[in-house]
Design a protein that fits this description.
By secondary structure, this protein is an alpha+beta fold. It is built from two helices and four strands. The protein has one domain (3-75).
Length: 88
């Protein structure tokens, strides 16, 4: 589903989703297609549901959002490893 389809199917709700198609460019992660796994009563329930899916399937991309959010686009932070001191 696209984000617009999710917003129409689950208006003003918290949803837990799996990212099926996404892209990264210019430090932005843009999600094009998702599968809705659960709709939740509030943000805390959505976070707990997200945590459950993430623990069971750690290699899959899950996210939870309220459908009032305008876009499925996020700033991406890359972790390059353990920071080391800079030699002088």
């Amino acid at each position: 589903m696209t984000w617009t389809e999710v917003q129409h199917a689950y208006p003003e709700q918290w949803v837990v989703m799996e990212a099926l198609e996404s892209q990264s460019d210019d430090e932005q992660w843009k999600v094009d297609s998702v599968a809705v796994l659960e709709s939740c009563a509030d943000g805390m329930a959505a976070m707990n549901c997200y945590r459950h899916f993430h623990q069971q399937y750690p290699l899959r991309e899950f996210l939870f959002l309220h459908t009032s959010r305008s876009k499925l686009q996020f700033r991406e932070h890359r972790w390059m490893g353990i920071p080391t001191p800079i030699a002088n």
